[in-house]
Design goal:
Layout lengths: L1 E6 L2 E6 L5 H15 L9 H12 L5 E8 L2 H7 L2 H17 L6 E6 L2 E7 L3 H19 L10 E8 L7 H15 L1
Antiparallel strand pairs: 1-2, 3-5, 3-6, 4-5
Helix pairs in contact: 3-4
């Protein structure tokens, strides 16, 4: 802060300094809580859906991948919610490891996730999906694995010349996912 003051008849500038480091750290933490799914560390539904809406306004093609972790309810009911959380975290880690930095992963809710793949064809995304499935299969063969990990997916190839709403796109990808399930 700056303030012009009279100091014994002389005009002076009074300068006040405030350290806002703690305030900025709190702001960063609040932003993280507002945008991130705390279990997985990926973007949350609100932010992911906002980014998807923005993506539709761009003149770019992209591939949306809708995913569902199979048998999560069974794991939660039979082994416990801690094991269910570990299942979700494991799947997210495998998916994140196979994504490019410009792709977007977010948790839609529960056992459902969405990836927006940029600058890739459907065939390239299917190749990435095969690599993800292979990694999940290798985890299934690990000792002490009390449940099998499996994930179903459905793709939707968005083209700006064929506009659809986010809801329509998600519904079509969801239907494709159920064909695999």
């Amino acid at each position: 802060k700056f303030e012009l003051v009279d100091y014994f008849g002389n005009p002076c500038v009074l300068i006040g300094i405030t350290d806002i480091t703690d305030l900025k750290q709190v702001e960063e933490e609040l932003l993280k809580y507002a945008t991130t799914d705390m279990l997985t560390g990926v973007l949350n539904r609100r932010v992911g859906m906002e980014l998807l809406e923005r993506q539709l306004s761009k003149p770019e093609e992209f591939v949306l991948c809708f995913m569902d972790i199979n048998h999560l309810k069974h794991v939660n009911d039979q082994i416990g919610h801690k094991a269910g959380d570990e299942l979700i975290i494991t799947v997210c880690g495998v998916i994140k490891a196979k994504m490019d930095s410009n792709d977007i992963l977010f948790r839609l809710g529960g056992d459902e996730f969405v990836v927006i793949f940029h600058h890739k064809t459907v065939e390239e995304v299917e190749q990435i999906w095969c690599i993800i499935q292979e990694k999940l299969e290798s985890i299934n063969y690990a000792p002490k694995m009390p449940y099998p990990i499996s994930v179903s997916h459905g793709l939707y190839h968005y083209r700006p010349e064929n506009p659809v709403t986010v809801e329509e796109m998600m519904e079509m990808a969801d239907k494709e996912m159920y064909k695999e399930k």
